[in-house]
Design goal:
The chain is of the alpha+beta class. Helices cover 33% and strands 19% of the residues. It has a 5-stranded antiparallel β-sheet, covered by helices on one side. It has a 5-stranded antiparallel β-sheet with strand order 10-14-13-12-11, with helices on one face. A two-stranded antiparallel sheet has the order 6-9.
């Protein structure tokens, strides 16, 4: 009997991932990630885990930024028609997205197997898609890669938008008020992306939604050609043919969605007012109505590292820093599940101990939950600040303000950080959290 080789991304079946998840069958794979079905050993819940191999990610700032942005965005999305991100875990070489498992699979597979949908079913799916997209746009998030492959169906036939890897946020908009990154899937991209004029994120999502609706109701793409340039010409000119069986109302509606002029293209609010769209439509109440609290994705330091809050006690900053072994980097972050007062108390105890060893290290309290540490003869200065992420969940940031990196390394890496990580010595399963990173297990 031939030996069964274990995937390097997949832990052994009798060894739950980080003590939490039993990995099942492979659901899909990409250039540097694979998605598996998994079971939460704590409650038996089915989840999908996207495992990203850090070693295969292109070594450029954009790749890392995209991953951090995707996590930050997905954490803030809480809508019935968007795949939910539960938590993010990590080892030295892997990043794990633990997400809602959608049993029905991709919308693309459903169309490929059964053909076009009825107009009523197409309308129902499209209404849910617009509800999800409207929710994202209200929070300054633009998907930029909407297509049937990125739309899942649950067991009840409800859609779930997934894969926010190419998403953009309002902070990426340039001074001309437009986005400029060329991205998307050729058959679904809007004309203004092809023409490289810069584009409005909301308008290109609406175009892609129009292509999706056409595919749902026709069973094939409106713009398709084996020659990519010919297909792009068709997109820019808006050249496509409606199937004979398509109703005139749907044709009129699609013409507004697939308008090549983004200024004249229909808006989300206008879509919701159209008679074809409104038939049987029940407006979904968003899971959270505090748009203003979620409309600042990526603005603050905490948002940029929101992923850490799902992995209490794990220092994930090294996963996104190719120079993670060098203490020349002036910032370090770590998460602990404790109170701010407890962190300060532990640091004060350390300073007393250091001073007891004739070390001239002084602690000076700053702000509400911050301290400044000054070394002997003023050779170095460290600012240690504590941010409250959630109830008893803290993000601790250390900055080297002055002095040599070696002193920063000695005090922060070897003394202060271990104390902070010691606040979470074990996770819920009794497994040492610190060893999950240091052990190098995947």
């Amino acid at each position: 009997m031939p030996e069964i080789k274990q995937s390097p991304l997949r832990p052994p079946p009798d060894h739950p991932l980080l003590g939490k998840y039993e990995i099942g069958k492979l659901l899909g794979c990409g250039a540097f990630a694979k998605v598996y079905h998994a079971r939460d050993v704590r409650n038996g819940q089915s989840v999908a885990i996207k495992i990203i191999n850090k070693n295969k990610i292109p070594l450029n700032a954009n790749s890392m930024s995209n991953i951090k942005r995707e996590i930050s965005i997905m954490k803030k999305l809480n809508h019935p028609n968007i795949v939910k991100l539960f938590e993010v875990l990590a080892s030295k070489t892997r990043i794990y997205f633990v997400m809602e498992f959608i049993k029905g699979g991709e919308l693309f597979a459903k169309i490929a197997k059964h053909g076009r949908f009825s107009e009523d079913l197409s309308r129902k799916c499209f209404q849910q898609l617009i509800s999800a997209v409207s929710y994202c746009h209200a929070r300054g998030i633009y998907h930029r890669d909407l297509k049937p492959e990125n739309i899942l169906l649950d067991e009840n036939g409800e859609i779930k938008v997934s894969d926010f890897g190419l998403s953009a946020v309002t902070e990426q908009i340039r001074q001309d008020g437009l986005l400029h990154t060329l991205c998307g899937t050729p058959s679904y991209v809007a004309p203004e992306i092809i023409s490289r004029r810069g584009y409005n994120g909301a308008k290109i999502d609406i175009w892609s939604c129009g292509v999706v609706l056409f595919v749902l109701s026709a069973g094939y793409l409106p713009f398709n050609d084996s020659n990519l340039m010919v297909m792009y010409q068709k997109i820019c000119k808006g050249q496509f043919k409606y199937p004979r069986r398509m109703s005139s109302d749907l044709r009129k509606f699609l013409s507004k969605l697939l308008c090549t002029n983004p200024i004249k293209r229909i808006t989300i609010d206008e879509i919701k007012s159209q008679s074809w769209f409104k038939k049987g439509y029940i407006d979904v109440r968003f899971y959270d109505d505090k748009v203003e609290e979620n409309n600042n994705v990526g603005k603050s330091l905490i948002n940029a590292f929101d992923l850490i809050s799902f992995s209490s006690g794990l220092d994930l900053s090294a996963l996104f820093n190719d120079k993670c072994n060098s203490m020349e980097d002036s910032e370090r972050l770590v998460v602990a599940e404790t109170s701010p007062e407890r962190i300060i108390e532990k640091v004060e105890e350390l300073m007393k101990e250091e001073n007891g060893r004739n070390s001239c290290v002084r602690l000076k309290k700053m702000k509400e939950y911050g301290v400044e540490l000054q070394g002997q003869f003023g050779k170095f200065s460290i600012v240690l600040e504590v941010y409250q992420l959630a109830d008893k969940l803290l993000l601790v940031e250390a900055k080297r303000i002055a002095g040599e990196a070696i002193h920063f390394d000695e005090l922060w890496k070897k003394k202060i950080k271990p104390i902070i990580l010691g606040q979470l010595s074990t996770n819920q399963q009794g497994i040492p959290v610190a060893s999950e990173l240091s052990g190098g297990g995947d």
